[in-house]
Amino acid sequence: MRVKTIQVAVVLALSSLLLTACGGSGDDAAALPATAYEMQLLHVSDMDSGGDLVTNSKGLSALVQKFRSEMPDHTVFLSSGDNYIPGPFFNAADDASLSAELGAPSAGRADIAILNAMGLQASAFGNHEFDLGTRTVSDLIRTTGTWVGAQFPYLSANLNFSADGNLAAVAAAANDGVTAGALRGKIAKYTVVSVGGQTIGVVGATTPTLPSITTVGGITVAPTGASAADIDALVAQIQPSVDALVARGIDKIVLLAHMQQLTIEEQLAPKLRDVDVIVAGGSNTGLYDSTDYVRPGDTNRGTYPKTFTSAKSEPVLLVNVDADYKYLGRLVLPFDAQGRVITGKLDAARNGAWASDTEGLRRAGLSAADAMPAVAAIADKIQAVISSKDGNLFGAASVYLEGDRVLVRNQETNLGNLTAEANLALARATDASTTLSFKNGGGVRSSIGTINAPPGSTSGGFKDKTAANTSAGKQAGDISQLDIEFSLRFNNGLSLLTIDAQQLKDVLEHGVADWTATSTSGRFPQVAGLRFSFDPTGAALSRIRTIVVDDPDGAGPLTEQVVYSGGAFKVPVTRTWRIVTLDFLAGGGDSYPFPAFVTANAAQVNRIDLVPTGVTKTFTTAGTEQKALADHLAAAFPRTAPYGNADGGAATDQRIVNLSVRTEILPQ
């Protein structure tokens, strides 16, 4: 059948904004318009949380290959960013065994090479692309000698690279709107992809919070100084790129938005014009339709796709899949002759989140043997490199150590407690006066443990201690170098500072200022040496109700001292404590106020970084959080006396008391 040629636009939006929902179409089939064009959108994002990237990437490659073969001339494959993150998988690519696959081995190149092999056509920038600075971004995406670089462009409509010495040369304004195949290893606001005679436009956008959560170098982020919720200002940055595509006659637009929290993309949808689909990123939110298989341990957090109405009163679809290659998003889009999505013809049997595990592949008529050979070759060699680390053991735990993104950024968890305690132990070995430990939940990247499905089940699962790896000499419950590196992927250095009572309250207020029941803000604290309660119904920066510290009075066991309760300080506000925190936070990461404390009184704060500037941080580097946790586990929780504090959820938390979940339990 002849199909009228229709230009299509896909908008990649990397940002963090909200969308307002309206219901899907209720038209019956007889009243629906004819389908003038059909396009298959395959999408991924957020390969940054750990998990089994090796197995998942191979399974996902099989799904990509199958679905692309079913619609070879009408398929586009895109990512909404966070395609890599520093960590074991990232670092393993520096091993000489990958010379044949990478040309020249170097950290991070395997992540890019896997996407190249899968045929990714464009990606938005996430925040984790910049974690090691813009020089690393340049080294990964550009062709260098025998390294081919990214065989796709990176996109962002609201980032300006002109003042960044590492990326300005590949981010020329002339790149905007050029065909993706001619922009390999380059950066643009938007591009176009030709698929079976159709022209598809792709636009990118990135969260305005970028400067406070990663390393931006000379990049300028717009809206300048905006919060994640400044939706109108963000729309003003994205809409011109959409309009430029529309001016070329392109009437089908997909927006890939890396906004960190799905509520941001949900607010973007009704404010943008001429966008048909928004592919979200950064929140790891699993959306599923009624026919989808949800992997054991995962949670259905909404409908795939969500449906909204645009500023032009046209349908806008929002999709997102969970991270780490666990799912491939598949959205087959029927368009009418005016370029509008016919929501009443969306097919749940075809669309949704397709799982990449054994059961997910089985449901797609596939098996592990169907992985793309090029992807399998890279992934298997990465596995060989990192497997050696699973036999390097440091203590044990008899319970699951909770590092799930939604939980560790929202409440106290046992892993948050454990790593904060480890940092405190290391700090006290350096400076015995150190009393308090404070870190952000966003620094905990994954749990330590395994999720076991009940016999015969394909939908349930329970959280358990780590699984045995007999080939590495690892018993169930043992905690390895690999476990620690996966969980504390950033391997921040530790910093010592002295703060007073008012500053302690200010830090805690900042940590819970943007808490909501569904928030996943990386700033949420995990602590040791203190306890506090907060009321999330209070105004931001006025939510802390009680602060209690473990007072090292020299009289034996630590005793608790109430610092703040009932709206008043119970100690002089000038009372000080020595604290340990991450160097990322000490430098103002996640917008924490520590730099302001230094400016006000540098002598009192007396910041000491346990890892000097310029020192490369590895697993064995003294003064890093990975080394701190490894040493603490080995000393305090050997295999014969494993850590056993199971995570009980917010209703049982003792250290961080959420007063919307339980009544006050702290001394007054």
TrEMBL record:
- PROSITE patterns listed in its UniProt record: PROKAR_LIPOPROTEIN
Gene3D superfamilies given in the database record: 3.60.21.10, 5'-Nucleotidase, C-terminal domain (3.90.780.10)
User: Could you tell me which SUPFAM superfamilies the record lists for this protein?
Assistant: 5'-nucleotidase (syn. UDP-sugar hydrolase), C-terminal domain, Metallo-dependent phosphatases
Is Thylakoid given among the entry's keywords?
A: no
Q: Does the keyword Hydrolase apply?
A: yes
UniProt record similarity statement:
Belongs to the 5'-nucleotidase family.
Recorded protein name is 5'-Nucleotidase domain protein
- The organism is Leptothrix cholodnii (strain ATCC 51168 / LMG 8142 / SP-6) (Leptothrix discophora (strain SP-6))
